Amino acid sequence: MSTPAAQHVSGRTPDGGIAARARGLTKAYGSGETAVLALDAVDVDIARGRFTAVMGPSGSGKSTLMHCLAGLDTVSAGQVWLGETEITGLRERELTRLRRDRIGFMFQSFNLIPTLTAAENITLPMDIAGRRPDPRWLDRVVDALGLRDRLGHRPAQLSGGQQQRVACARALASRPELIFADEPTGNLDSRAGLEVLGFLREAVDDLGQSVVMVTHDPGAAAHSDLVLFLADGRIEDELPGPTAEAVLERMKRFEVVRRPSGDGLGGQEG
């Protein structure tokens, strides 16, 4: 369902533009009476150069929304664009190239190669693609994330927070149009989590990046410019300029509409 909030979710400014958008985005798992409707005709704009957080009760569709916007999952109906490129209907090879060249990813698990140094992990996706990183941009990212003296270390020699910083640098290395972060602080202690959130904030404010973060943590969401709230596969509300207290209060409204089953993502709830 398209709601007034869904029509205004981007927090768009006249000069900012849209990093990604969806119209009528629907995702169902299964068929017939056992079908689970994870996303229900969602209309959403993701603003360029802004930090957008996505929240909702377990099973509300937030991870599914991210996966569909990033081209990691197919849609049942509707359309999705990255910038001006419609990605619904692209062949898998074209989607792979688009994700590699135009999107950065951060996940709860760091997904670092243990035998490679931090520097090698950061540039690995570009190395696989046969692309050379822009050295000036890479230096800027490394310095912004405080990794200059850790580039020769392997993951086992780094703390959890440092490993997630390497993962953040890897997501930023190709200067993507959009970064998707799925619970990026989920495996970190509070101090390391705050560091990573601060770096994502800096990536937007100082490096001009666009970030979409799925989170269950009101404190993490408070680092964003805009929070989108999902319930039963629909965007039901939004909160610009969030604080942790305001996010927590808003989330209380949606606990009563918690979906009894998950999103259908291999047992992971979104």
Automatic annotation (TrEMBL):
Methyltransferase found in the keyword field: no
Keywords: ATP-binding, Nucleotide-binding, Transport
SUPFAM superfamilies in the record: P-loop containing nucleoside triphosphate hydrolases (SSF52540)
Domain ABC transporter residues, every copy: 20-257
Any Pfam family matching the protein: ABC_tran
TM ranges: none
One Gene Ontology term of the molecular function aspect: ATP hydrolysis activity
Classification via CDD domains: ABC_MJ0796_LolCDE_FtsE
Name of the protein: Putative ABC transport system ATP-binding protein
Source domain of life: Bacteria
GO cellular component, one term: plasma membrane
Keyword Cell membrane assigned: no
